[in-house]
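Late entry, written up from scratch paper. The run itself happened at the end of the previous shift, but nothing got recorded in the book at the time, so transcribing now.
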Amino acid sequence: MNKILFFFILLVSVAFLPQQSTSQNNNPTLFVTTSWLSEHLNDPSLVMLHVAQIRRDYEKGHIVGARFLWPGWMAMSNPDLSYEMLPVEQLDTLLEGLGVSNDSRIILCGTGANIGAVARVFATLGYLGMEDKTSILDGGIDAWKSEGRQISREIFPVKRGTFTPHLKQNVFVDAEFVKSNLNKSNFSIVDVRPPNLYSGSGSAAGSRNGHIPGAVNINSSTFVDSTNKLLPLPKLEEIFNTAGVKKGSDVITYCSVGASASVGYLVARYLGFNAHLYDGSFEDWSSRDELPVEITVKQDSVKE
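Output as recorded:
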């Protein structure tokens, strides 16, 4: 073959290779569209979970075949902390009762402005070894309804699943894990609380002022638009880059008690980062007097 022709073919081939994103390996299957779901509603392995804070939201209309999932069945307060994951045995029993098996394809359907609850369920399923088989309906039930798609009030009996957790360690992490990775170049700690709590000019009840040393601040509200839908992937990448989250690093997210940190975790996974959710979050960290906090405002400002 003529050398000039060979190099021309090689150049054209490289030009048409898929272009990589600026992050590590984005997760393209994390979200599914309403069109995709409509085409797969009758798949035998599909398990759709309607995530809502109150059962009434589910009973007044859900996608055909969806099962109700209250987030409180996966995380709730205990005598020590305000928001903690429940024991694996309980989660196993819960999922089997919802019809989940190890070969299930799980779709999470949110309602209204509950992206945080959906994100928490996603993180929990990831911990149990089901992240690769779990997706979120983009826009949730609101997007489905806005397109005039079928809604049902019928509740059908669910065949119990057979589920065995395969735990993915360090999805949920504790204070010791965070402490041991402070100031490491391959870790980025992301505080998703409002700026006043991060800076130390304000504080939540029972917590010290300030933030975990070395953490960057990205308020979880900046991840979503006015409809509480996650921003496009390039915009989310820009937000992480602007905050100084290092490409290729592990990301630890935290908030006040571990709820909105789930949204930060979800975004980090969407962007392809190896992510961890500090379950006790700043409520736990600040209650430990031996652990340091940083304040980024003048002390006289804190007292005002």
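Confidence is low (pLDDT under 50) at residues 1-24, 299-304.
(Scratch paper discarded after transcription.)
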